[in-house]
Amino acid sequence: MVNNLLVLQSDFGLVDGAVSAMIGVALQEEPSLGVHHLTHDITPYNTFEASYRLFQTIEYWPEGTTFVSVVDPGVGSDRKSVVALTEGNQYIVTPDNGTLSYIKRHAGIKAVREISEVANRRKNTEHSYTFHGRDVYAYTGAKLASGHISFEEVGPELSVENIVEVPEVETQVTETKVSGAIDILDVRFGSLWTSISREDFQTLSPEFGDRFEVTISHHDL
Prior knowledge:
The chain is of the alpha/beta class.
C-alpha cells in the first residue's frame, strides 16, 4: 500500500537545520524516497492548527502516502508516539497530542499503533529527548513509506477511541441563524476558514442578492 512518498509538517520553520536533519535521516533510510513538504510554519506548539492543516491537505495525496507531523509541545514527556492509518489508506506519524483530531472526526481513522522505540528509533539516540521529529518520527516515517516495515511492525495497536483530541466548537443551526467558530486564518490572502459548512449555510435557503449579518466575537475554547 505504501508508495515511497513522505510528506513533512512541523512548527520548526526554516531558519535552522531541523527540517534538513529530518530529510537527511529519511534519505539515509531510503535514498529513493520522494520527500515533500506540507508546511513548516505551524504556529509553535499549536496542535489544533497542525490537525487542521493535515485535514486540509491529505485528500489531495495518493493512497499509501506517509505524512510526518511534528508539533510536539510534550516532547520528552510520557505522551505517546503513534502512526494512524486513515480511511483513505494514508499514514500519519505524529505525537498523540491532538494532531489527529480533525482526521479522526472528518476523514476517519481505521487503526492506530504506538511506535516501538526499541525497533523504530535511530540507533544511539536513546539519550536524546528533544528531537523526536528526527530520531523517531522522520525515521519511522521513512521506514514505513519505503516499505522497510509494515504498519503492523510499527508497534502495538491502540484504541482509535482513545486518541487525544483537541476541543472543537459544534456548529449550531436554527431557522434564522448559523453559528460556529473561525477554525483557522489564511493570513496571506485575508481569508477566514470556519466550522460552518456549505450545507449548514444552505439551511437558511439563501438566494442571490440576499443580505446576511455576520457577527464575529472572541471566545476562547
